Amino acid sequence: MIISLFSCGISYICVLLAVAFFTFLERKGLSYMQLRKGPNKVGFIGVPQPIADAAKLLTKEIVKPIFSNYFLYLGAPVFSFSLALLLWQLYPSCFSVVYFKWGVLFFLCVSSLNVYGTLLAGWSSNSKYALIGSLRAVAQTISYEVSMVLIFLFPLFVVGSFSFFDIKDSQCVVWFIFLMCPISFLWFVSCVAETNRAPFDFAEGESELVSGFNVEYGAVGFALIFLAEYANILVMSLFSVVLFLGGPFLMVLCSDFVMMVKVMILAFLFIWVRASYPRFRYDFLMNLTWKLFLPIALVLLLFLLVMMFNLFL
């Protein structure tokens, strides 16, 4: 028990550091894509900038809206941040202390609770802009979760296991991204929409909603929402690597290092997409999942089941 708690604490500290410097990578990446410098005044080429931002947010005064539901208003960011950290317990590393045999089911249960944090943050603020932003985010997240779960079934049916360790190890010969190229593309787009990232960031439409569901938050509350969002980006990149870009345990240290390189490349694609595409129209977003992703996923899943049935016969 002591070893497990110590391992969890070290993992969470590493996640917080990774999130902090991933925000720095995003700001520098977007700036160079837009032909500017980005943060470069604090320390060497702006590297301590995330630490300065964290110090600023954590030392600011907490301002409470007068008509807000105070306990839910404070609890929603903590709830979202806790769920984001909880998913990192599924990290399939050689050094993992806890082995999740039903890790996929745990991932689906925890990730589906994220909408409640967004909904509580928007509703408890007692602001019409925050409420509209949270409703848009909840509708978007639930819609893309349907297609995302169907896409999740493809590697599960091929491997025949609910463990992320088994899914990763089963790709010793060939990665699933080569066997399921269209499905892996649908998965990545669904992950972008699931994390409310551009071009699907409808919860944060600056022109009409200012900052969406978190418009009333500042100081620690905003910092926790911010950390939860970027931790979800990294964890979705991690599971994308496990599902479609996994590999064998060639060497203990080498395997984890290569996996982290894949995660960072995939996480950088989130930044690249944000810099490349404008925001979709909301009806296009909903049509994309219900009229395109869902039928394609169902048809391809039926095709896979027929092939597996013929193979076993």
TrEMBL record:
Any transmembrane segments, and where? 5-25, 70-90, 102-122, 142-165, 172-190, 219-245, 252-272, 292-312
GO CC terms in record: mitochondrial inner membrane
GO BP annotations listed: aerobic respiration
Enzyme Commission designation: 7.1.1.2
Bilayer topology annotation: Multi-pass membrane protein
Subcellular location(s) per record: Membrane; Mitochondrion inner membrane
Query: Key word Membrane present in the record?
Result: yes
Recall the GO molecular function terms of this protein's record: NADH dehydrogenase (ubiquinone) activity; NADH dehydrogenase activity
Q: Which UniProt keywords apply?
A: Membrane, Mitochondrion, NAD, Transmembrane, Transmembrane helix, Ubiquinone
Q: Which reaction does it catalyse?
A: a ubiquinone + NADH + 5 H(+)(in) = a ubiquinol + NAD(+) + 4 H(+)(out)
Organism domain of life? Eukaryota
Per UniProt, the enzyme's principal EC class comes to translocase
Does this UniProt record's set of keywords contain NAD?
yes
Q: Name one Pfam family in it.
A: NADHdh
Which PANTHER family does the protein's record reference?
NADH DEHYDROGENASE SUBUNIT 1, NADH-UBIQUINONE OXIDOREDUCTASE CHAIN 1
Q: Which family does it belong to?
A: Belongs to the complex I subunit 1 family.
Protein name in UniProt: NADH-ubiquinone oxidoreductase chain 1
